[in-house]
Amino acid sequence: MAKSEIEKKIDAGAAKFEESAEQTAANFQQRYTDWIKNDRFFDGFRNTFGRIILIALASLWLVGGLLFCYNNGSGFIVYAIGVAVSVLAQKLSVRFVFKTGGLDILDEYQEARRNRAYRRAYSWVTSIVTGMVMVILFYAYANVYFTDGYLPLIPDAFIHWNIGAYQVAVVVVFLMGLFSLMPYFAWGFKGEPFRSKDEPNL
Amino acid sequence: MLCDMGRKPKDQEERVINRIEELRLASGISRQELADAVGVHYQTVGYIERGEYSPSLVLALQIAKVLGTPVEKIFKLEEEN
Asked: What superfamily would CATH give domain B15-73?
């Protein structure tokens, strides 16, 4: 059965809308890609000095915030926002190399450095988590020993470790921050070369 | 010999030096133009020029093509110097 005039108009309108939406999405993607590749607004985050400062601040915030919030039972929201801001600053600092969103924006240098950073981050995270487990186990054994006067085969001291929901939330934010930031730390201090805004590109 | 095979540690690897900056400036090409021509970032050209990164063979050949110079005239091992 032949389509009515109205149906034809609706089909044509839908096709036009679809084409327009696809074009808009493609334009947006192209602009986003160009921005990531060529942005100079955040160059201060990308040179070596900027990266040293960012990594130092992120480390201090991550560990210092954990200790403060855990012990004082306050400041969780500020701590969580600070961790998120640290991750965002690191993303900007390395031009989003770890989260490309499927876009083809990395060149071979960035790919090679990113892959090396992943390997180092994996190694560091393994060491840190192993170290934390060892510290907790030591704490558990020591707690039992000094409380009950003997060393059990398997310590059940965790049961005596009174940790509230607030502290759990703080530790979760810390761990999320640690795992998120580790590849950026492993990326290294070496940043993009200093480049003045007036540099003639030579 | 077997002990000479495989990849050397980073500090023992031969350093590749290049004449990209010299040839690029002689050709009047900016870093950005060279980067665009070979499909890498501006910064990557800087890292290569400073000898901080050794490009892949494909990229080295592309750079040589843009600069109009044979690749062996652009790159060489530091020990050859």
From this structure: lambda repressor-like DNA-binding domains (1.10.260.40)
Residue B73: its H or E element = helix B71-74
> Which ipTM was obtained for this model?
0.77
CA dihedral sign, ordered A52, A56, A62, A65: negative
DSSP character at residue B11:
G
Residue B3 has pLDDT above 80, yes or no: no
Question: Which one-letter amino acid corresponds to residue B24?
Answer: R
Measured in angstroms, the CA of B79 and the nearest CA of chain A are apart by 24
Taking residues A145-165, report their average pLDDT: 72
Residue with tokens 């934390």: A132
Largest CA distance in chain A: 92
DSSP strand pairing (B16-18 vs B75-77):
antiparallel
Residue A74 vs residues A27, A78, A80, A166, B3: alpha-carbon distances, Å: 45, 9, 12, 9, 59
Interface with B, mutate which of A33, A106, A109 (most B CBs under 10 A): A109
Domain regions of chain B by residue span: 15-73
> pTM here?
0.77
Give B40→chain A minimum CA distance, Å. Answer: 5
Do the chains contact at A109 and B53, CB–CB below 8 Å?
Answer: yes
CA distance A100 to A33: 9
Considering only CA atoms, which of A95, A60, A102, A80 is closest in space to residue A184? A95
Contact (CB, 8 A) for A56 and A175 = no
Buried b (16+ CB within 10 A) or exposed e, A171-197: eebbeebbebbbbbbbbeeebbbebee
A88-119 pLDDT per residue, tens: 999 999 999 998 877 888 899 999 999 999 99
